């Protein structure tokens, strides 16, 4: 037997020493919790494919937000679910002063002020009768440039209602530039843009469509969301968004795209977010319910892998469930 001088196991012998040499941290400050707000009243509706995640009406939202703050989650990503009769062909509820997100923002601003950072998902698919992320032509194809004008109206309306950050998620070409100029024209110079810059056409979004009750028309989305086999294209998307004024970038989904997170992080110096999406949550919880894995432990490992790949910020439905375990 030769002498072993290098023994990596020496640094693994206790919690204390493991914590000393740990390379990657995860804390509640890294996490953003998605929150679904419905225009109905007196509702706290479970989402079947996403255990412990609910749609809340405004009158029942505070308890959820109080609980998030109690466990140290101080940032939310807000999604609105309008009444069926408020949906139309262009998603005009998204830029109505009386829209569900605008009402939610005013409520959150008045109840929580700066305690809670409210980020809005900026898109149309939850608000259009056809479920597309913008304006469509007679053949049901998304029209890029007309959609930009409505995006401008939407972000200005969000900012007026008190949005702290806007997060355009529609993969519309030129959306970041259009949004930046609309915000600046209205003197909202200090509202940052978190761009869903690198968003793949992914089947991992399945449970989300349940959560917001939209049409699941996946084929069309492949025309504007990125093709999963592509990585270099992520750099093209990210570069355009940085040039157009994105303050933060996002890669979505997260788990199957850790290589993309790493590549984007290597190339760009703005803060990088990733979205640990609904399908990633659902499959973990489903296996946990079967007793096949320890869901929260697996979640912590997944979230840590996203940080290790280079994500500064993680949007995750696990934020609340794992917060107790985190600094
Ligand atoms: C678009 C949007 C979607 C998600 C976040 N914003 C759906 C889509 O692009 O089809 C998915 C999030 C998730 O799956 O958790 N409004």
Number of helices, counting only DSSP H or I runs of 4 residues or more:
12
Distance between the termini: 44 Å
**Chemical compounds bound to the protein:** ligand PBG
- Unreliable spans are none
Q: Would you state the CATH class?
A: Alpha Beta
Protein model, in words:
The chain is built from twelve helices and ten strands. Strands 1, 2, 3, 4, 5, 6, 7, 8, 9 and 10 form a ten-stranded mixed beta sheet that branches. It is globular, with a radius of gyration of 20 Å. It has helices at 15-21, 61-70, 100-112, 144-161, 175-185, 206-212, 218-221, 232-244, 258-267, 278-289, 295-309, 319-322, and strands at residues 31-38, 44-47, 50-57, 75-81, 117-122, 165-168, 194-199, 248-252, 272-276, 313-316. The chain is an alpha/beta fold and 327 residues long. It starts with 14 loop residues before the first helix and ends in a 5-residue tail after the last helix. It has a single domain, classed as Aldolase class I (TIM Barrel, Alpha-Beta Barrel), CATH 3.20.20.70. Bound molecules: ligand PBG. Ligand PBG is lined by residues 121, 123, 125, 169, 205, 208, 221, 277-278.
